[in-house]
Amino acid sequence: MHLEHIKKVDPQIAEAIEEELERQRNTIELIASENCTSQAVMEACGSVLTNKYAEGKPHKRYYNGCEYIDVIEELAQKRACELFHMGHANVQPHSGAQANMAVFMATMKPGDRVLSMDLSNGGHLSHGSPVNFSGMYFDVKSYGINENGEIDYENVRQLAHEHKPKLIICGASNYSKIIDFKKFREIADEVGALLLADIAHIAGLVAAGLHPSPAGYAQFVTTTTHKSLRGPRGGIIMCDEKYAKDIDKAVFPGMQGGPLEHIIAGKAVALLEASKPEFKEYAAQIIKNAKALAQGLIDEGLDIVGGMTENHLMTLDLRRTGKTGKDMANVLEKVGITANKNTVPNDPQSPFVTSGIRLGTPAVTTRGFKENDMREVAKIIAGAISASDDETALENLRQRSLKLCKAHPLYE
Ligand SMILES: *Cc1c(COP(=O)(O)O)cnc(C)c1O
Q1: Is 20 exposed, middle or buried (0-12, 13-18, 19+ CB in 10 A)?
Q2: Distance CA 388, CA 321 (A)
Q3: Ligand 1 centroid, distance to 113 Cα (angstroms)
Q4: 198 belongs to the catalytic site
Q5: Read out DSSP for 152-194?
Q6: Which of 5, 25, 298, 322 has a 20 to 30 A CA-CA distance from 361?
Q7: Contact 104, 134 (CB under 8 A)
Q8: DSSP labels, 237-270
């Protein structure tokens, strides 16, 4: 990492960046929405492109001097369309939440009805939570998951017929099973709704062909670029050609001003990386690692919501251990593992306490963890849960985590 200039100009920020790098190097990152992007992506994001205003779209800008910016943004759009087999891509959304907001704006008027997955069942804030714009300005009905950790498609169908939504959203922040996009489209067609597939979490798996694609089923596909896709922090909207104008207008001038062209360059680089054979291998390893972690935890006598995972993540169900998600996420931090607390279906605890912990493998897979490493991680997690009050035992577990980190160096 080159920090020569910032060290001179702002030593406090330089020091915090260096400490953050050490933290990333020395902890096992199991937050399912995180990843470690490539140095190539970071170079694009740290480039002179940050200096440029480029409101509008390629060749139709409100500012002059955009000839190179246009090259970059068009490459990002073309790569997104090719990778996900969609007709049109808008690569300007600053984040996944803003990508979703633009789809709401392009397809509905305030007060219109949406059917989406409930937040406490694995949905996302921006799919209709009452504390988010989506829940404040739209009429939201929600579906959940059953005790097997699966979407009950018959229930979704009933809710759709009962509530006649304008937009149905599928895609989640915490769902460990394959999503049946075809079935969602059938349901949407039955009630005359449009379908939005938010693939923020699984984009890398979809790009690699290891999760069915929503292309051909969802009229709108949104994603983040920084999760399993391993790009910079940001969002993308893809849609059928027919909706291109509406989407572009909703992003700008609807919700955003100038696009972040340095981040768009990072997205372009990440999309190119994701089209390579090595990325397919990477994505396959993410799933193998998730299955090895889940099996390791089950072998240690722990419960996983819905049993074996089918993708990159799982929720550890702590109800039988008598411990809470909040406490155990803090204990895991002590042993060098970062993860977040999460509700389980019908959670007896509040969303601030929870009975679950969400675990995902995209980040550790990037640094080279394989199945045997994941089995050791499962043992460390199980050990930390059973010895959560024993500081000596926790210190020993911390050393085992460190050993795994040293065996798989990051950014060296
Ligand atoms: C992470 C996520 C988002 C939002 O991403 P941000 O970039 O944090 O706004 C949207 N939808 C789903 C399903 C997500 O998991």
Answers
A1: exposed
A2: 11
A3: 21
A4: yes
A5: -HHHHHHHHHHH--SEEEE--SS--S---HHHHHHHHHHHT-E
A6: 322
A7: yes
A8: EEE-GGGHHHHHHIIIIII-SS--HHHHHHHHHH
Q: What pLDDT, in 10s, does the model give residues 169-200?
A: 999 999 999 999 999 999 999 999 999 999 99
Ligand 1: centre distance to CA 199 (Å): 9
3-state secondary structure of 11: helix
- The confidence band for 412, taking pLDDT boundaries of 50, 70 and 90, is confident
Strands (E), 276-408: 303-304, 313-317, 337-338, 340-342, 356-360
Confidence of residue 107 (pLDDT cuts 50, 70, 90): very high
* Residue 53: active-site member: yes
Helices 153-163/181-191 angle, 10° precision: 20
Look up 175 and say whether it is catalytic: no
| Identity of the amino acid at 402 | L
CB 31, CB 340: distance < 8 Å: yes
Q: Are 62 and 55 in contact (CB under 8 A)?
A: yes
**Distance from C-alpha of 162 to C-alpha of 279, rounded to nearest angstrom:** 42
Band of residue 117 on the pLDDT scale cut at 50, 70, 90:
very high
- The residue among 104, 175, 167 whose CA lies nearest residue 141 is 167
The conformation of residue 384, written as its DSSP 8-state character, comes to H
